[in-house]
Design goal:
The protein is built from nine helices and eight strands. It is an alpha+beta fold and 279 residues long. It is globular. It starts with 19 loop residues before the first helix and ends in a 9-residue tail after the last helix.
Length: 279
């Protein structure tokens, strides 16, 4: 077989490095594209080009160009008579990788299912992100009236059972910094909006090992939650049971609280973590 000679190196000027303006433009386009994905993930049933452009603060022509690029890569999809844009399969695949790569989420699922069987209420798994808890797992109960939370949705840390469970597990100075930065905005008439009120709640959470949300984020909804910890006794996230006020009475909260706390302790042990509070 004849030997193929390698092509000689091409002579001429050395390729120049991208100009800083080009790099800045690419970064800006990436940021805008990711912002579009974030806004679309918050909308049920998709959105029109005009709606998306308004939500991200861009011209319709710019938004359309970015959407077309995202569609070619499978991150968004346009369908229907109205031409609504929705999240595509590639975005779902990338997002699902987060869950798949966290043993915490995978290992917790069986415990959530058992909690549903034991309580008859919907069980949730959440993690802390900034001043919010983000729901990353759920097993729904079979009741007609039940809590259904969209995975990826956020609840404020001070006005949710999961949030307060995680908050109580943080050092006091960290809690103080969070309060100073974000305050205690009201969501319902039952929201804790004073530092003294929140600190009193934190003391009880640390004493009993579980927290509860008494219509603090949404009227008619209650939940009871407990934190899950890593090997340093720092919070990985929280599990919770949620349902309507008519079923989650004070008596049931007192009964379900220890159950949720024990389950959180089991998950903690399964993850090689350390539970800092008695239960």
């Amino acid at each position: 077989m004849p030997h193929r000679q390698s092509l000689p190196a091409r002579r001429g000027r050395t390729p120049s490095k991208p100009e800083s303006g080009t790099t800045t433009s690419h970064v800006q386009s990436l940021t805008r594209g990711l912002t579009i994905l974030e806004r679309l993930s918050e909308l049920e049933g998709g959105a029109t080009l005009t709606d998306i452009a308004q939500r991200v603060g861009l011209a319709a022509s710019t938004t359309h160009r970015l959407l077309n690029t995202l569609e070619k890569m499978g991150y968004v999809h346009q369908s229907g008579e109205l031409g609504l844009w929705t999240i595509g399969i590639t975005a779902f695949t990338v997002g699902s990788a987060f869950i798949s790569n966290r043993d915490f989420a995978i290992q917790s699922h069986a415990y959530l299912r058992r909690l549903v069987e034991q309580s008859g209420e919907t069980a949730n798994l959440s993690i802390l992100d900034g001043y919010d808890v983000v729901f990353i797992g759920q097993v729904q109960c079979r009741e007609i009236m039940r809590m259904i939370v969209k995975l990826g949705s956020r609840h404020p840390i001070h006005a949710s059972g999961s949030g307060k469970a995680i908050l109580a597990s943080l050092p006091d100075d960290t809690i103080q910094d969070l309060l100073a930065k974000h305050g205690l905005p009201r969501h319902t008439e039952h929201t804790i909006v004073t530092p003294d009120g929140l600190w009193n709640a934190i003391k009880l959470i640390r004493k009993h090992g579980y927290a509860y949300d008494d219509e603090e984020h949404a009227l008619g909804l209650r939940c009871v939650a407990a934190a899950v910890y890593d090997e340093y006794a720092e919070p990985l996230g929280a599990i919770s049971l949620a349902g309507p006020l008519s079923r989650l009475t004070d008596e049931r909260i007192r009964a379900l609280g220890p159950l949720v706390a024990r389950t959180a302790a089991e998950i903690t042990a399964r993850m090689g973590g350390r539970w800092p509070h008695p239960y």
